[in-house]
Design the sequence.
């Protein structure tokens, strides 16, 4: 992480790889929100209670967007376990599913993400900001 926790983290905010991002929101993801940005990271968390998928984006205006899809295990309606078991990968295909609740949170800085997103994604964001994506070796 940063040597000084009060030093702001500087993420590359160039617009070269920004795209339209459409995020589901609300119960079942039946509504959507759109902005221009790029995905910085993603994590899946499995617990005894349920599953959460957390995605972090950087908007064109430099805001950080946390998109969370969260559901209890009871939200997964599997009526015929024997039939569904052969297609178990489809059950956890989180990209095209409408299970659970979706939320979108917007913050101004990477530092505000601490505690809102999994520690692994936060460490990746801070490391990416501190180091170049490609380290040219003169060997």
Sequence:
């Amino acid at each position: 992480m940063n040597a000084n926790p009060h030093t702001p983290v500087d993420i590359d905010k160039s617009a070269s790889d920004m795209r339209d991002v459409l995020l589901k929101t609300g119960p079942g993801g039946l509504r959507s929100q759109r902005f221009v940005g790029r995905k910085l990271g993603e994590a899946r968390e499995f617990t005894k209670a349920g599953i959460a998928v957390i995605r972090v984006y950087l908007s064109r205006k430099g805001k950080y967007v946390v998109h969370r899809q969260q559901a209890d295990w009871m939200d997964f309606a599997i009526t015929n376990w024997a039939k569904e078991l052969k297609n178990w990968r489809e059950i956890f295909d989180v990209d095209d599913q409408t299970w659970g609740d979706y939320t979108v949170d917007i913050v101004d800085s990477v530092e505000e993400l601490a505690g809102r997103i999994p520690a692994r994604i936060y460490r990746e964001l801070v490391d990416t900001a501190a180091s170049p994506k490609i380290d040219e070796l003169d060997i």
Observations:
- Residues 1-7 have pLDDT under 50 and may be disordered.
